[in-house]
Design a protein that fits this description.
about 200 residues; elongated; three-stranded antiparallel β-sheet; five-stranded mixed β-sheet; 6 helices; about 30% helix
Length: about 200
């Protein structure tokens, strides 16, 4: 599990490089800061755990946090050099293009409404009445499966996420916000993330 989790960023950026996906990818690390002494202990332990698994983590004291994050609100942070940022829509479109180039057929706006196992195969019912015969079916719908597969909804834990985008920043504003140009995430007790893209000026 540790190896699987630790390889997540490697897999993403290897796919971007292999398929030449233009998605504003930037692999310059990820910072997890702490604003309280309790959360500082949590991230200190997390940094030690990843270091024990061979990750070249860096520890940032309060002054280094202020320099990297443009804020003096944090007591300390650890830096994971494996991570980075990208434009998720451009990444998804790039993966779709790569899949089609490899022979996959993609059907957009074709929600599946039913699955029926028949003689060792699957009949997939698509909205509008079309049917697809398949030897295997992968359910990769995450939280959007609905009632497609009985029992699947009980295995999904809802995690709401709200995103806010600013207007494009001026050069002066961008230099004061995340001057280190890295993404940041608060500890689990305060699940906030912040970052930027070239289009946003940071």
């Amino acid at each position: 599990m540790v190896e699987l989790t630790g390889r997540n960023a490697d897999v993403v950026f290897e796919l971007i490089q292999r398929h030449g996906i233009d998605c504003e990818a930037s692999r310059n690390g990820w910072i997890q800061p702490a604003a309280t002494h309790a959360s500082l202990k949590v991230i200190e332990a997390r940094a030690r755990q990843w270091a024990d698994h061979g990750v070249d983590v860096s520890w940032l004291d309060r002054a280094a946090c202020a320099e990297r994050l443009g804020s003096e609100a944090y007591l300390g942070a650890w830096l994971d050099p494996r991570a980075g940022g990208l434009n998720p829509l451009a990444y998804a479109r790039g993966l779709a293009t790569a899949a089609e180039a490899a022979g996959a057929r993609l059907f957009e706006r074709s929600p599946v409404q039913g699955l029926d196992a028949q003689s060792g195969r699957w009949v997939v019912e698509v909205q509008g009445g079309a049917r697809i015969d398949a030897g295997q079916v992968l359910l990769c719908t995450n939280g959007y499966s609905g009632g497609l597969q009985p029992g699947l909804a009980r295995s999904v834990i809802a995690a709401n996420s709200y995103q806010i985008a600013t207007r494009p920043l001026t050069d002066t504003e961008a230099q004061g916000i995340l001057p280190g140009a890295k993404s940041s995430r608060m500890p689990a007790s305060c699940c906030s993330t912040f970052g930027g893209t070239p289009a946003a000026g940071c």
